[in-house]
Amino acid sequence: MKIRANGIDVEIEDSAAINPQDPDLQSRPAVLLIMGLGMQLIAWPPELVQELVDAGYRVIRFDNRDIGLSSHFDFMGKPNLVWASIKHKLGLTPRPMYTLSDMAADTLGVLDALEIKKAHVIGVSMGGMIAQRVAIAAPSRVLSLTSIMSTSGARGLPQPDRKVLKILLSRPSGTSTEAVVEHTIGLFKAIGSPAYPASESELRARITLGVQRSFHPVGTLRQMLAIVSDITRAAQLSRITSPTLVLHGKADPLVPYACGEDTAQRISGAKLVGIEGMGHDLPPEPVAQMLEALIPHLQSADQSRI
């Protein structure tokens, strides 16, 4: 379903849309899920979404700008990530085509369009960074914050494994769906959970579905530039007043566990839950462990409002 949010078209899925006339579905506490770099709303594990619905929540997912079925920003051109990386290493700030704060404004625009005053905000990876930005910019709109396998962006934190970074920055061997799927399988295997490896057939089916729905790699590059340009967030995390949960895999090769530790340390009262054997993905077993902490976190925040 398309909505207009922050001046752009945003594709959303809303669990309350199953029966728009049901007042119970409309009045449930809202949970807003923000996906990571280059990923679409369908990347959220169905079991996580269903568990949240079963726990009594209205669950909203959406495609971030420049990805999936939301507005693309091709008129802005293709970023030069090599030059941006050089500037970043020199301590200079690359100029993004849009910022994570712009993407946070999109997120708030989704809530506005759905006439939701407050929501539990959950983000994974880049989505966690956007969620942090939402909590900084609009504390009165955030019932609780959950940052999953994300980071504060502070300088000096451990960087991605070099092999993983090489794969992340490489290109598919061709433009065909098969070439794109093969390349993405290689990336997902590199960043995945060592204790919970997904089968290649499962990966292929999931990735193929995403590529067929939408494939827009230049949008991923622009999102990546927004990430490396967001250099002030770490110092601003102390402003967050929302109840905060930080979930992070202890075997994450893309965003190392120390990044989750740093995020939790910078937010007053934040709770950190580390998951053994989990990498930078959302397999069923780690998702089940996350839900054991996540649902009580949401319920506690709801109770504190009463």
Outline the structure in words:
By secondary structure, the protein is of the alpha/beta class. It has a single domain (2-305), classed as Alpha/Beta hydrolase fold, catalytic domain (Rossmann fold, 3-Layer(aba) Sandwich). Helix content is 44%, strand content 15%. The protein has twelve helices and eight strands. The protein has helices at 23-27, 46-54, 81-89, 100-113, 126-137, 162-169, 177-191, 200-213, 217-229, 233-236, 257-266, 284-305; strands at residues 2-5, 8-14, 30-34, 58-62, 119-124, 142-148, 244-249, 271-275. An eight-stranded mixed beta sheet has the order 1-2-4-3-5-6-7-8, with helices on both faces. Helix 11 (257-266) links the parallel strand 7 (244-249) and strand 8. Helix 3 runs parallel beside helix 9. The protein starts with a strand and ends with a helix. The mean pLDDT is 94.
Which tags fit this structure?
single chain, 306 residues, alpha/beta, Rossmann fold, 8-stranded mixed beta sheet
Could you outline the blueprint of secondary structure elements for this entry?
Elements: E1 2-5, E2 8-14, H1 23-27, E3 30-34, H2 46-54, E4 58-62, H3 81-89, H4 100-113, E5 119-124, H5 126-137, E6 142-148, H6 162-169, H7 177-191, H8 200-213, H9 217-229, H10 233-236, E7 244-249, H11 257-266, E8 271-275, H12 284-305
Parallel strand pairs: 3-4, 3-5, 5-6, 6-7, 7-8
Antiparallel strand pairs: 1-2, 2-4
Helix pairs in contact: 2-12, 3-9, 4-5, 6-7, 7-8
Work out the count of structural domains.
Answer: 1
What is the CATH class? Alpha Beta
Number of strands: 8
Report the span from N to C terminus: 33 Å
Question: Which structural category do the helix and sheet elements fall into?
Answer: alpha/beta
Strand content: 5-15%
Number of helical runs? 12
